[in-house]
Amino acid sequence: MKQKFDVITSTCVPLPLENVDTDQIIPARFLKATTREESFFGENLFRDWRYNPDGSLNKDFVLNDPTYGGEILVAGKNFGSGSSREHAAWAIAGYGFRVVISSFFADIHKNNELNNFVLPVVVSEEFLAELFDSIKSDPKTEVEVDLPNQTVTNKATGKSKKFEINGYKKYCLMNALDDIDFLLENKEKTEEYEHNAKA
User: Fold this and answer.
1) pTM, 2 dp
2) DSSP 3-state assignment of 165?
3) Contact 190/183 with Cβ under 8 angstroms?
4) 3-class state of residue 120 by DSSP
5) How far apart are CA 110 and CA 21, in angstroms?
6) Do 5 and 147 form a contact (C-beta atoms < 8 A)?
7) Checking DSSP bridges between strand 142-146 and strand 151-154, what pairing results, if any?
8) What distances in angstroms separate CA 187 from CA 190, 196, 199, one per listed residue?
9) Contact 100, 92 (CB under 8 A)
10) Does 191 score more than 80 pLDDT?
């Protein structure tokens, strides 16, 4: 969903598992879907963890626990490994997450998140562990993600860290632009450049 990104302050959903791959985020069988609707993929985010084989809810999985909620997913190291399917990012966005915080992302998945207006925030393993501890101690813990200043703050401890982001992607997120929107926004500059190149 195209939304301008500025500062987000939200409670979090903790997923303290390492090496979560794209098949766990959205199982391969959903890649055959004929829809691009974010809500469809959001409903099937972590499908095989959210539901038991008989189709009933797995009450032990964090997304089914009403204790936790919010626009921020806090995930373990090496999030989004495995295949390069963009559907994984669609599912995360479709569920309603606007930020994913981890100590490491698979590169392709990280870019897929950015292309789908989800901000992947890379923090140190120490800061990530502290976040998990704060959320476990108090599920109402809020985290502030400030894109303009590129900071993430654990409101429970007051500790804040800087994060890196590509300048182009930052501009696109802050202005709700995908790659095509950006090109259209700069159409006159592109045409002027082409004209001067031919001269």
Assistant:
1) 0.89
2) coil
3) yes
4) strand
5) 12
6) yes
7) antiparallel
8) 5, 14, 18
9) yes
10) no
